[in-house]
Amino acid sequence: MLITAKTNLDDIAIDRIIEMAWEDRTPFDAIKIQFGLAEADVKALMKRELKFSSYKFWRKRVENCKTKHLAKRVTGIDRFKCNRQRAISNNKISKR
Q1: pLDDT tens profile 61-87
Q2: How far, in Å, CA of 28 to CA of 43, rounded?
């Protein structure tokens, strides 16, 4: 299913999805909860939005990252973001 057929995302949402996809601690399930995009949709969005070399680098990184998939995560990791990151709720940065 194509992303454009599934939902209309504005530039801010696309930027946030890309940011979340690059973060090692943010699993694809968190992106699905916030934006309704499955892992395949996120991969398609990244391929569309990034330069091809950046996409290839990201894909290689994601394949080797155990924290991007909840089933592969170590039990000690129980949050979606770094504890030094600003508080984020419902895709909005609370302190601006």
Answers
A1: 888 877 676 665 555 555 555 555 555
A2: 10
Model-level pTM? 0.65
pLDDT at 24 (0 to 100): 82
Domain boundaries, the chain: 8-93
- Tell me if 44 sits within 8 A of 81, measured CB to CB: no
DSSP state, residue 92: E
Residue 41 structure tokens? 């949709």
DSSP H or E stretch at residue 48? helix 39-49
Provide the b/e sequence for 35-74 (b: ≥16 CB within 10 Å): bebbbebbbbbbeeebeeeeeeebeeebeeeebbeeeeee
**Residue 25 contacts residue 65 (beta carbons within 8 Å):** no
